[in-house]
Amino acid sequence: MCGIFGHTNLDQESIASSHEALHTLTHRGPDSWHHEIKDSVYLGHRRLSILDLSENGRQPMVAQGVYLTVNGEIYNYLSLRENLIRDHGVNFFSDSDSEVLLHGYIHWGIDRLLDRIDGMFGLAIYDQNKKTVLLARDHAGIKPLYYSLNKRNFSWASELKALEHFYGKNALTVDTTAIYDFMTYLYIPCPKTMYNEVRKLEPGTYLTYDLKTQTSETTRYWSLKEQNSNFSSSNYQDYIKSSLHTAVSEQLVSDVPVGFFLSGGVDSSIVCYEASTCLKTIATFSIGHVDKESDESPFAKQVAETIGSLHQSMNFSQKIANENFSLIKEFYDEPFADVSALPTNEVCKLARQKVTVVLTGDGGDELFGGYQHYEKANWVFATQRKNTTWLRPFLTAIKTYAPHRYIAKKAQRYEVKTITDPMEKWAKIKGGLLKTDIFKRKWAKVHSIPTNYDDYWYYRQNDNPELTPRTRAQYIDFNTYMHDSVLTKVDRASMAVALETRVPFLSKKMINAAWAVPESERYLEGELKGILKKTYNTVLPKEVLYRKKQGFGIGRIHKKDKLYDRTKNLPKQILSKLFPQILKTDSLGK
User: Fold this and answer.
1) C-beta of residue 149 within 8 angstroms of C-beta of residue 216
2) What integer is the mean pLDDT of 443-463?
3) d(C-alpha 285, C-alpha 312), whole Å
4) Distance, CA of 332 to CA of 355 (rounded, Å)
């Protein structure tokens, strides 16, 4: 796992600033750094050594006029390496997966390479022969990649902070629609960032930049699709177990110590169990909470005892949350409202004392239907209500100007019943602010956001109405919330301490397996993640598998001598406390 930064149109005056921008990513790659300059193209790499710890594994890697930098891991690289040796006579000088990408591109081209590899990555290739720069991001969006295309140059980086440093914040302008979207989604949706001049590369896509014409083209190479299958119920369970075992075993490959996050939930428990069947002993890490109602550590301990892992845990507290709240800006560079990033970072710090790589259970909820809000999917996508939208302006006025809070709450509760747009219902369930929210309306007015702006464009863009309601909800989450919130949270919180996190549930084979399972099997016996629970209920404690799902909240945010309820208006709190420069000195900032 590493950090990459690069750009075109390099001149002598910008070499120092290029190095400085690269070094803003030192936390992602503290072991070493290198760079290459060719045809005024700068390619920089900060290395976290995972495979082939020798100098042979360093980047940028070069062969036949092709230069490669990559942040990530390719899990099936050994079989691809054998193919390249057998079919093309490639002589490898390292044992790294990165060199497989380099020669794979040379001999197969970008489309066939991306079709064959299974892993997580954000990569940049400069092809001197074609005078093109290629950027590619993994199929599920596990690893990040940002880019900027302007008259001065084309640039890219693993995190936004590197581009901020390179251009200078004064050269970047705030995208006011992106901040507005943040209030809706609690993250800035891909491909937007908080700046007009910078974009995120979308998952499952690659971008080609032509140095001669200074034009770019984006190509989608992977998308989520339902798979055909005709298994019986028991065979579905065998198929899922076999696929997950293969994914876990493949992701154990490493030249540094590997551990496992164990939350006490279904997904991480299953990953840890499968790992325990591959290794003699495994190290597991969890985080509890001093608030017993939020504490899942007893369940993690129960699983650890069942599988015989060497288990370590720590407790998270409100004091830690208060002291570390500002880290959200440091980690994410732009508004981001999943404050469970703070306990995630704490368990990452705990694990990093012993290991350099961990496997997690992320992705299981989206693939197998683990979120409780999937039980409301029929209300969102299937229920037809009498059209009472004409009442909404009156209810909005009441909740805005009501002299008593009780009346305002009543109006807000009835307002929900007037919603007919499925995407607005989904936004409500996901916790974002609706179009009628006072703060959002003020922002829209101050920044001249059109009244016909579609607040829910991102959900609508990633919707598939042909699917059944619960599967449709999973599809939207997979293509939006999962990579923009869940995976982003874990990537930044872990890479802040140079810890690589791997996600077996999101291997290509595991995704295909999950989407080959009919909805009736996925929710077997009426249970969220029913097929997973049934598959593993003989080897894991039923108390763990069948308990109600818990989230990891951090309660309230402390500032000076006041406590602020984070659930009251989290987007406003994130902006006012961490990004005050965004808010104007008018009523928005008060």
Assistant:
1) yes
2) 96
3) 5
4) 24
Pair 293, 543: CB distance under 8 Å: no
Give mean pLDDT, residues 537-564: 67
Q: What is the pTM of this model?
A: 0.93
Taking CA atoms, 53 is separated from 3, 94, 348, 501, in Å, by 16, 10, 22, 18
553-590 CB burial, b ≥16 within 10 A, e <16: bbbbbeeeeeebebeebbbbbbbbebbeebbeeeebee
Beta strands in 469-519 (DSSP E): 500-502
Domain 2-220: which topology?
A: Glutamine Phosphoribosylpyrophosphate, subunit 1, domain 1 (3.60.20)
Encode burial over 377-414: b for 16+ CB neighbours within 10 A, e otherwise: beebbeeeeeeeeeebeebbebbeeeeeeeebeebbeb
pLDDT in tens, 337-372: 998 999 999 999 999 999 999 999 999 999 999 999
Q: What is the pLDDT of residue 12?
A: 86
At 558 the pLDDT is 41
| CA atoms of 281 and 257, how far apart (whole Å) | 12
Q: Cis (ω within 30 of 0) for the bond into 203?
A: no
State what percent of residues in the chain have pLDDT above 90. Answer: 77
| CATH fold of 233-373+471-545 | Rossmann fold (3.40.50)
Fold: same for 2-220 and 233-373+471-545: no
Lowest mean pLDDT across 51-55, 276-280, 307-311, 331-335: 51-55
The CA-based angle 37-42-45, given to 5 degrees, is: 100
Whether residue 396 has pLDDT greater than 70: no
- What confidence tier does 296 reach under pLDDT thresholds 50, 70, 90? confident
Q: What is the pLDDT of residue 493?
A: 97
SS3 384: coil
Contacts 24+ apart (CB under 8 A), 440-449: 440/180, 440/183, 440/184, 442/587, 442/588, 443/176, 443/179, 443/180, 443/183, 443/588, 444/180, 446/584, 446/586, 446/588, 447/176, 447/180, 449/176, 449/177, 449/180
pLDDT at 151: 72
Interatomic CA distance for residues 572 and 576, integer angstroms: 6
What pLDDT does 587 receive? 44
What are the extents of the domains in the chain? 2-220, 233-373+471-545
Q: How many whole angstroms separate alpha carbon 83 and alpha carbon 93? A: 16
Residue type for position 50? I
Residue 6: φ, ψ to 5°: -165, 170
Rounded Cα–Cα distance for residues 554 and 350 (Å):
18
pLDDT at 382 over 70: yes
- Length of the chain, in residues: 590
Alpha helices in 251-314 (DSSP H): 266-276, 297-307
